[in-house]
């Protein structure tokens, strides 16, 4: 496999970057023409969802309490059996739902599909002594390995670095082997400085990604700018990764310092620091506002070309007409990003991919974020909500403040009556009311809309997030005399045990 993969990497590195860029520019003109012709318009809004997991030892076969919840590699055949897709690390598995109309039936279909497929996957992996976990960052490495060893493992195949625990995704392997690739890829976070020869450290993190497709593509900039402004407040509700695997912390740092200086969502920092290591400009970044739909296309074209992958155009799909642009979009990393796709002209779509939210403790919490985001995308433009006038710099600071401090981050918001507030009660009263309004506008009953939003409202009422739950668990264990590594491991095992009881049928609000 290494030989074949190294050869594929060499093929990628032989692609002429100038030709790749020129092809992307030509594809952009195709997309712009189709946008003008209305090809990307639809008669209704549509929602979709990506859901990432990692696998751990469930203790069924090992019988060793110390091995419980340690990271596991998912056999490729297993991924095929459960109908999930490979992600960056061998421990990862990703589910993508079928797009559905944004109405009560479509939302129910999204939730039912997640539950049906995940339930079947859990049954299948259980026979292998494995469990899929919904979480923002793993902290217990595979049995017999440190996190540093797992993330840094690689082999040199005649000058090509191949990460030993990375999926055979040529694009990611190519990142470490280009002529301008750095010697190492770096995690930089409070009390963590870690270097690896490949982008494998990015596989520490997992997320959920709601998609929202507006009916009229020309409206994308309006929806996009609202999505930029809700990114901070929604992230503040969803934070879930205050701790790293213990062996990644700097030597000599004490447990109290780690606890005091930990950010609530290190996932954001991992993604940015690792992938921005290799580029002259920040490719993983908080996006600026859009003025026109054409600008959204141009941004993908103008983005720094990282890996000019070879492109095959067989003409069988509609999006083959802009295949290079679509390929380039694969390394267009923004926390909110526009997407243009569709296998046929009738399925052509312009949508927003919302990437700030980490994987959540339960399915119901995950669907709550999908529903809330879709509801906000429906309501805020319809109501011409004044938060659209909030300075972009404030929206950006909201996002990074949420990364650091979660619900304690002092999110700034312009309420429906036009006054600015940092009172979290006022912020979320307005935000969640508009999410609910968007759901009822899409046809949900009041009771159904409130059910979708209830897990998020519960977090506001209790002033409690998954990150704060993890902090409490670690702090309690430190108080009882555990060292940092034991405290983080104990917290992670408790998280996974709680999740095993509530993943399919409960919510984070049930975690007491």
TrEMBL record:
<dbReference type="Pfam" id="PF04107">
    <property type="entry name" value="GCS2"/>
</dbReference>
<dbReference type="GO" id="GO:0016879">
    <property type="term" value="F:ligase activity, forming carbon-nitrogen bonds"/>
</dbReference>
<dbReference type="InterPro" id="IPR006336">
    <property type="entry name" value="GCS2"/>
</dbReference>
<dbReference type="InterPro" id="IPR050141">
    <property type="entry name" value="GCL_type2/YbdK_subfam"/>
</dbReference>
<dbReference type="InterPro" id="IPR014746">
    <property type="entry name" value="Gln_synth/guanido_kin_cat_dom"/>
</dbReference>
<protein>
    <recommendedName>
        <fullName>Glutamate--cysteine ligase</fullName>
    </recommendedName>
</protein>
